[in-house]
Structures are given as structure tokens and as C-alpha cells.
Design brief:
about 60 residues; alpha+beta; elongated
């Protein structure tokens, strides 16, 4: 998800209903579990377009 999509879909709590008076912000599962995001691997940049090491050495 892009930052703009997250901002658009996030839920904002009512600070007046909070014990501390603070607002909370989160994404409900119904906001991100949608067809346009599910299995949307095409939305990621390809590794070729990012400077990523081609070899990964794992500890033995």
C-alpha cells in the first residue's frame, strides 16, 4: 500500500472516548484485505530497479 492509501483508509478514534484523551490511528483488516491489495505483487518494485546485493551469505 502506498502512504496515501494508508492515510485514506486508516481509522481515527475519537479522543473524547479514550481513557487518556489521545487519538489512535490504525488500519482495520477490512481496509487492507481488499481485492486491489490481495496478491498484488505487481505493485512492488522489481529487484532490478533497486540497488540490492545479488548474493546473500547466511551464517553457518
Amino acid at each position: 500500500m502506498t502512504l496515501d492509501e494508508v492515510k485514506e483508509l486508516c481509522h481515527h478514534s475519537d479522543p473524547a472516548k479514550s481513557r487518556t484523551g489521545a487519538a489512535s490511528i490504525w488500519l482495520q483488516p477490512s481496509a487492507y484485505d481488499q481485492p486491489q491489495f490481495r496478491e498484488a505483487w505487481h505493485r512492488f518494485e522489481t529487484l532490478n530497479s533497486i540497488d540490492v546485493p545479488k548474493t546473500v551469505i547466511l551464517p553457518a
